[in-house]
Design brief:
This protein has two domains: about 140 residues, Isopropylmalate Dehydrogenase (3-Layer(aba) Sandwich); about 160 residues, Isopropylmalate Dehydrogenase, CATH 3.40.718. The chain is about 45% helix and about 15% strand.
């Protein structure tokens, strides 16, 4: 049984939503252990008591060093100590990265870890990275992210020969800032990747490629814009349907299709993103995660552990990247 350590105090809706989501995941056969302060009602789930909490507004590296007994750091340390196969937190993303670098450490040859998030594209999920771990990046970082994303797509999404594109402001190779221009050149020269050129953000939900690469600043903005747009459009559609008697009648007819669409596009369907490039498996959940999102983030973590994502990256990155 896969063991997942969950930061019970991380996120805007913690601890209630985190505990309930963890409980749902545990019902599916995942061994979940919560990390948080004494006195939490865990509904029977095991609790490792901690005495500190890292809040969203705290400076990540300072908080991780100053609060070694925080729920977030203790949950990450559980993976490093072999007490868990993966860790999930909806808390401070920077602190997750800092704790991961401190306790899990980077895989050999990995320059920088990256956040890889599944995008619910129309033709099937694709992978966007980096989605927020590195606000500033170099062209060679993006090249390595591309290799990491390709391994992720092959091992976890089951795509035999994943296609790859670079997120930019135009499809032409000469479009973009200096980072995009230099990264494009490196990707063009890398014959071990199926690089198809640049892609614009408007094509992300169409399934522009199996892997889309960018820096963490751009990727995080693109991701949050997509998520916000999806949620607002689905909510607006529901409001319009319920606004009139005729709309309600029509809503009955399209309800099955609408539910399928919501299930496919809802960001909570994946629940979180993998922090790739570390020696242990870490999943970063949305700060606003509710019960369903947390449950899916724990399932995502368990699936990554079962597919040995970390081991696969360790095995295949050196031969792919040559750094």
């Amino acid at each position: 049984m896969t063991r997942v350590a969950v930061d019970a105090l991380g996120g805007d809706n913690a601890p209630e939503a985190v505990i309930l989501g963890a409980l749902d995941a545990a019902a599916a056969g995942i061994e979940v252990t919560l990390y948080g302060t004494a006195g939490l009602d865990t509904h029977g789930l095991p609790l490792v008591e901690t005495t500190e909490e890292i809040r969203m507004a705290e400076k990540p590296a300072e908080a991780v060093r100053a609060k070694p007994d925080s729920s977030l750091v203790a949950a990450v340390r559980a993976v490093a100590d072999g007490d868990a196969d993966a860790v999930v937190s909806a808390g401070n993303t920077g602190a997750m990265l800092a704790a991961g670098l401190l306790h899990l450490r980077r895989l050999p040859n990995v320059m920088r870890p990256a956040i890889a998030v599944p995008i619910p594209a129309r033709r099937g999920p694709s992978v966007l990275l980096d989605a927020g771990a590195n606000a500033d990046a170099r062209p060679d970082n993006l090249l390595q992210f591309a290799h990491m994303g390709a391994v992720f797509a092959e091992e976890l999404l089951g795509i035999a020969s994943p296609t790859l594109r670079l997120l930019s402001i135009g499809e032409e190779d000469e479009k973009g800032n200096q980072l995009a221009l230099e990264a494009n050149r490196l990707l063009r020269d890398e014959n071990r990747l199926d690089f198809r050129g640049n892609v614009e953000s408007r094509d992300l939900l169409r399934g522009a490629a199996d892997v889309v690469v960018t820096d963490g600043f751009t990727g995080n903005i693109a991701l949050k814009l997509l998520e916000g747009t999806i949620v607002e459009l689905l909510d607006a559609l529901r409001d319009e349907i319920e606004a009139t008697p005729r709309g309600k009648l029509g809503g009955l007819l399209i309800r099955p299709a609408a539910r399928r669409l919501r299930a496919k596009l809802d960001p909570d369907a994946y629940g979180g993103a993998y922090l790739l490039g570390l020696r242990g498996l870490a999943v970063v959940a949305h700060g606003r995660s509710g019960r369903r999102a947390i449950a899916n983030a724990v399932r995502l973590a368990a699936r990554g552990a079962e597919h040995r994502v970390v081991e696969r990256l360790a095995e295949r990155l050196p031969e792919r990247v040559g750094v």
